[in-house]
Design goal:
Shape: globular
Organism: Leptolyngbya iicbica LK
Helix content: 55-70%
Number of strands: 2
Keywords: Cell membrane, Membrane, Transmembrane, Transmembrane helix
Radius of gyration: 21 Å
Distance between the termini: 44 Å
InterPro entries: DUF318 (IPR005524), UPF0718 (IPR052923)
Oligomer: single chain
Number of domains: 1
Membrane topology: Multi-pass membrane protein
Protein name: Permease
Strand order of the largest sheet: 1-2
Largest sheet: 2 strands, antiparallel
């Protein structure tokens, strides 16, 4: 009974912690879809994969989203045709490099300011490397869920998005938005809405605000359900595997890193508060292992895997997980072996 209560408490804690940031993420995603002209956005995007990866990683400095809110924004970037390196760089770096997390880490480790800059620096470095690796794949569609992949540029002609009423200027029941290419139906699937919607400079701000709100509700309804599922899994695993078992795995320079990475993946704590959680272990574990917890957890944890699977196929999530884990381990091991702070 106590384990059930503990699991329920953990589940609600994860849900309450992540929901505001998921809402923030879908708000940014919806505003990006309705208010930003995707053709201009793509035109300003660097074409070079390395520059795109760096831009995407630094783009996260402008978005105060955690590892839940970054998924809808990255998904929208991919659907708008942004380079995969930019979207992947943003996806991995945004939960850590945004100003809220930087400030929280600074407050928690104000006696160790090096921890703050190492965290941001390693996160950007790992994000850029992984984004460059993914950019080698010229056609990202095999890595994406079909509902997302259908909106990426294709070498073969593809049919226009589901539009109706192109032969009439009159709105019919269920109409959603007037676009230059026709009228978009409100009751079509959410992905079709997201994919076909472009900036609407000819519409009034009231219409745009209504469109943003409608899109937020649709996207939050879909991703919120996934977040509930992911939080339930993370809470169950935390109850089934006591933290003491993980922490007992090791105190050495190598095993301590593995233990803290595993702990970060299991506890799935939000990046805005994870620095205070990690601080409680700073007197026991090595600096490199604390850094591994702060870098690896916000990239991929047990909770946000379900959200990632709404955009990427399983093998792409595995690639992201393996690459992030390997790079985090190697770089934080170097910190343990070659630094003294």
């Amino acid at each position: 009974m106590s384990q059930l209560n503990q699991g329920l408490t953990l589940f609600l804690s994860l849900l309450v912690e992540a929901t505001p940031f998921l809402l923030l993420g879908v708000a940014f995603s919806s505003m990006l879809a309705v208010l930003v002209d995707e053709r201009k956005l793509i035109a300003y995007t660097p074409k070079n994969p390395v520059l795109a990866a760096i831009s995407g990683s630094l783009f996260g400095c402008l978005f105060p989203v955690c590892e839940c809110g970054n998924v809808p924004v990255a998904r929208r970037l991919l659907m708008q045709g942004a380079p995969s390196a930019l979207a992947i760089g943003f996806l991995l770096a945004a939960p850590t490099v945004n100003p809220i997390v930087f400030w929280a880490t600074w407050i928690a480790f104000r006696d160790q300011p090096a921890m703050v800059f190492w965290r941001v620096g390693l996160t950007i470095l790992i994000s850029v490397i992984i984004a460059c690796v993914f950019s080698v794949q010229k056609d990202m569609r095999p890595f994406l869920q079909p509902a997302i992949a259908r909106y990426l540029p294709s070498p073969e002609p593809k049919p226009e998005p589901a539009l109706v009423g192109s032969g009439s200027n009159l709105l019919s029941g269920g109409d959603f938005l007037l676009q230059s290419t026709g009228t978009l139906k409100l009751d079509q699937p959410m992905m079709a809405t997201l994919g076909a919607t472009t900036a609407l400079p000819q519409q009034s701000w009231r219409d745009k605000a209504q469109a943003v709100l409608e899109m937020m509700l649709q996207e939050f309804r879909e991703l919120g359900a996934v977040l509930v599922f992911g939080s339930a899994i993370a809470a169950t695993v935390q109850v089934a595997i006591p933290r003491e078992w993980i922490l007992d795995l090791g105190q050495g320079p190598i095993t301590s890193i593995l233990a803290m990475m595993l702990l970060a993946w299991v506890v799935s704590i939000c990046s805005t508060v994870d620095s205070f959680f990690a601080l409680s272990f700073s007197s026991i574990f090595t600096s490199g292992s604390i850094l591994a917890f702060l870098v690896f957890g916000p990239m991929i944890d047990l909770k946000n895997i379900s959200l990632l699977l709404t955009t990427f196929k399983g093998r792409a999530v595995v690639y992201l997980f393996v690459l992030a884990a390997q790079l985090t381990f190697v770089l934080t091991l170097a910190v343990n072996l070659y630094t003294s702070w």
